[in-house]
């Protein structure tokens, strides 16, 4: 990164215009040429500009500051403890914001994107990305690697997986030009595997997960090994290698239990439940979903999702009384907690309540209210399920034109899932 780019970065971050920075030192047009790398300014000009900005472009950060920054960067990579990450940030912020090593300063500012994402401050992450974009063309390979990766993290967090994949792939390509650690490379491979899995790029997901798993096995990182096995299990299930999928899920479960990661254990049960559902093993599927509900420390939304999965399994196996019992259990939960934050689940439970009670007029009305909400939220999985359900209802009632309309929506929604 050249001197002009560093001056521009600090000017933007201090919300100064070119006119304000240049005033009494040089002309605005001359400053513009400096910032755009078109001319190399005299040393006296650099000193005057840097003095106004409150920085020293000729000094380097001492080893202590560099070590603290690098430790914090590693914490962002490895830790899920947001309280610790925040505390460490607050400790080093005053010195990091005024460090004299400009290369390290830029790397710090790039890592702020990741920090904001870690603490779920997505607006701040976007603002930081926008600030850095103007000088991103001047980044050295290591800076560019993290810039690309953290852009991928941002798009992944806001559920724009195709954009995330684009940035992650660029980061992967540039990683060969850097001396980043094997741990960092493994993290990117795992992140790529998750993104490819979300996009249903099954072969790519398998390859990246296997690559990451090799590193984590060698370094006894059992939690991340479990996560890799879950991705491999999902990939195997999608290509109908069910025995291999079960093997991966079971390995993931053992590792999750070893590390006492309850969230991963629940995720394994969710995936095993889905796998057995696909194979029409209703009792096995229900037993795995039931394990999630038993765990009262699980997030309420996770338990609701498992409950509705059980209702679906009971309904498909014609155990209507058991299904209705679970419906009423779910509605009872929502009565206590409130349905406003769980409206989708409320609609699902209500649809099954009217269906199982043979209140078909209310069943139809509820679905007609529910389907536009799913369209608006682009919830294609549920949209496929419930438009198909309404289409079947119209066929049974000899309303074939209406059935055709909703079967068409179901097909379009399913195709959207495939595209995703």
TrEMBL record:
CDD domains (alphabetical): HTH_XRE
Q: Pfam families under this entry?
A: HTH_3, SNAP
Please give one Gene Ontology molecular function term for this protein. Answer: DNA binding
Ranges of residues in domain HTH cro/C1-type: 7-60
InterPro entries this protein is in? Cro/C1-type_HTH (IPR001387), HTH-type_regulator_Rgg (IPR053163), Lambda_DNA-bd_dom_sf (IPR010982), TPR-like_helical_dom_sf (IPR011990), TPR_rpt (IPR019734)
| Signal peptide residues on this chain, from the entry's feature table | none
Q: Which SMART domains match?
A: HTH_XRE, TPR
Superkingdom of this protein's organism: Bacteria
Q: What is this protein called?
A: Transcriptional regulator
The lineage, from the top, is: Bacteria, Bacillati, Bacillota, Bacilli, Bacillales
Originating gene: nprR
């Amino acid at each position: 990164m050249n001197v002009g780019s560093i001056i521009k970065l600090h000017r933007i971050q201090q919300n100064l215009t070119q006119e304000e920075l240049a005033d009494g030192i040089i002309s605005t047009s001359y400053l513009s040429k400096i910032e755009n790398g078109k001319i190399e300014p005299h040393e006296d000009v650099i000193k005057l500009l840097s003095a106004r900005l409150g920085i020293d472009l000729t000094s380097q950060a001492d080893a202590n500051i560099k070590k603290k920054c690098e430790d914090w960067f590693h914490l962002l990579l490895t830790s899920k403890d947001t309280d610790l990450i925040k505390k460490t940030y607050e400790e080093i912020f005053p010195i990091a914001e005024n460090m004299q090593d400009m290369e390290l300063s830029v790397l710090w500012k790039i890592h702020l994107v990741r920090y904001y994402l870690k603490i779920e401050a997505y607006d701040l992450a976007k603002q930081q990305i926008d600030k850095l974009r103007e000088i991103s063309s001047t980044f050295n390979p290591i800076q560019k690697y993290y810039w690309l990766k953290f852009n991928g993290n941002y798009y992944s967090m806001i559920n724009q997986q195709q954009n995330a994949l684009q940035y992650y792939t660029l980061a992967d390509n540039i990683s060969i030009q850097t001396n980043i650690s094997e741990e960092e490379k493994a993290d990117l491979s795992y992140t790529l595997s998750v993104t490819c899995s979300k996009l249903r790029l099954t072969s790519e997901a398998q390859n990246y997960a296997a690559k990451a798993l090799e590193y984590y096995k060698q370094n006894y990182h059992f939690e991340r090994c479990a996560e890799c096995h879950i991705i491999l299990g999902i990939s195997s299930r999608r290509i109908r290698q069910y025995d291999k999928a079960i093997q991966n899920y079971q390995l993931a479960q053992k590792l999750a239990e070893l590390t006492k990661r309850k969230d991963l254990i629940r995720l394994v049960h969710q995936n095993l439940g889905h796998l057995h559902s696909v194979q029409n093993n209703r009792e096995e599927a229900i037993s795995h979903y039931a394990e999630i509900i038993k765990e009262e420390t699980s997030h309420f939304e996770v338990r609701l999702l498992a409950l509705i999965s059980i209702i679906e399994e009971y309904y498909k196996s014609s155990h209507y009384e058991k299904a209705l019992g679970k419906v009423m259990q779910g509605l009872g939960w929502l009565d206590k907690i409130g349905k406003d934050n769980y409206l989708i689940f409320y609609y699902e439970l209500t649809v099954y309540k009217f269906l199982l009670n043979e209140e078909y007029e209310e069943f139809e009305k509820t679905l007609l209210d529910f389907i536009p909400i799913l369209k608006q939220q682009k919830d294609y999985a549920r949209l496929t399920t419930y438009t198909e359900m309404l289409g079947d209802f119209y066929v049974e009632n000899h309303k074939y034109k209406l059935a055709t309309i909703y079967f068409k929506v179901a097909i379009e929604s399913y195709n959207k899932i495939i595209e995703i």
